[in-house]
Amino acid sequence: MTKLVRPIVAVWLALFALTASACAEEATSPAGEKLTLMVGEGKIVEGAYLAGLSLTMAEGWHTYWRHPGDSGIAPQFDWTGSRNVSHVEVLWPAPDRFDVPDDVTYGYAQQVVWPLRVVPVDPASPVEVKLLMHYGVCSDICVPVEAQLDLSLPAAEQKAEAAAINTFLARVPVAPKNPDDVTVVLTGDALHVTLKSATDAAVVIVEGPKNIWFGASRARRTGDIVAYEVPVENNSGTTLMGADVRLTFAGSDTALEVTRKLK
Q1: How many CA atoms, within 13 angstroms, populate the side-chain half-sphere of residue 166?
Q2: Positive or negative CA dihedral for 32, 116, 8, 257?
Q3: Which residues pair with 33 in a beta bridge?
Q4: Alpha-carbon Rg for the chain in angstroms
Q5: Is the pTM of this model over 0.70?
Q6: Most buried residue, 25, 92, 107, 214, by CB count within 10 Å?
Q7: SS3 for 66-125, per residue?
């Protein structure tokens, strides 16, 4: 089987830079989206500030998840230049699946907030978060964007921003309460995945070793059990047996993630 990955929708436009002013926390592009660093509670909780990065887009536009799928561009976050920051953990809410002929991608439409865990080197000293981000937004055309933002912490609590961060934090996938609810078996050129106690029509997204293509899943429900078949194309020249794969289940009520070793 040969997977044909078509070019990203229409033509990528030339790169352009968006630089927020020293005191600003948001940036916009000609595509109409707005990127904003959000304060949230503005104080350290359990060793980190819980901040947020919000991207809002016009109707009909979307951006991409960490694994964009058959085409698209995954967001890239560069925190170089931040001061008194040990590291920033970006949390990924469960994405939507976008299907067009010969192309399946994963991402977010209208708005996404990436919750951020900002861990300071010295909790007693102020933090200056500096972000250089590359991402793409798509509609009938696709636009690559580069944006620079900054945020100072601690800061006064922003209740609306904290509520938005917590809404998307609840969409960040977690492990199932019962590990046996998820099984995966590799048979020939397909993964067979089952999800028990399913409450909605969640899609499953598979990430694995390099040079392995996992296609869009096909699902069949029997009661509260959903069985998925995921096409696999192995161009690595090595066996998949014993390899780790990460399974993300994304639905209206479902946000689960597990890693399984194929056997």
Answers
A1: 8
A2: negative
A3: none
A4: 20
A5: yes
A6: 107
A7: EEEECCCCCCEEECCCCECEEEEEECCCCCEEEEECCEEEEEEECEEEEEEEEEECCCCC
Where does the pLDDT of residue 140 fall: very low under 50, low under 70, confident under 90, or very high at 90 and above?
confident
Where does residue 196 rank: exposed (0-12), middle (13-18), buried (19+ CB within 10 A)?
middle
Query: Rounded to whole angstroms, how far apart are CA atoms 209 and 176?
Result: 23
The average confidence (pLDDT) of the chain is 88
CB 240 within 8 A of CB 212: yes
Tokens of 56: 């809002």
Burial class (CB in 10 A: 0-12, 13-18, 19+), 72: buried
Residue 52 near residue 165 (C-beta atoms within 8 A): yes
Read off φ and ψ for residue 240, nearest 5 degrees. Answer: -85, -15
Three-state DSSP at 13 gives: coil
Q: Decide: 195 and 181 in contact? Cβ < 8 Å.
A: yes
